[in-house]
Amino acid sequence: MEDEVRTAVMTMVFEASDPDGLLTVLAKYVVMARGEPGCRNIDLCNSFSRPNRLVVISKWDSEESAREHVGSPTMVEMAEACTGLLAGPPDIDLLEGLSAHDLN
Fold first, then answer.
1. pLDDT tens digits, one per residue of 40-57
2. Which helix (H) or strand (E) holds 23?
3. pLDDT at position 102
4. Domains of the chain
């Protein structure tokens, strides 16, 4: 099925030096990113095992829409607002969304 559309999943893992400040920035980002072209869903998660770790998981219509979002004003604003709130650079990954059905 060559013409089948595959979704893209973007993960962004943040280690906070200021957890409350970072939570505020990422909560705003998640609300704004939900309206971006191609965004199917986006969630903000707090790690149970690492108290200063926040993770954003988003699902996109395509790899192209996810890559376009990376340079969007919404993403740039979020990245700039993270200045001084992180213990290190975020770990960002773009994954191909597969389902169990795809693995046959």
1. 999 999 999 999 999 999
2. helix 19-33
3. 52
4. 18-85 (3.30.70.100)
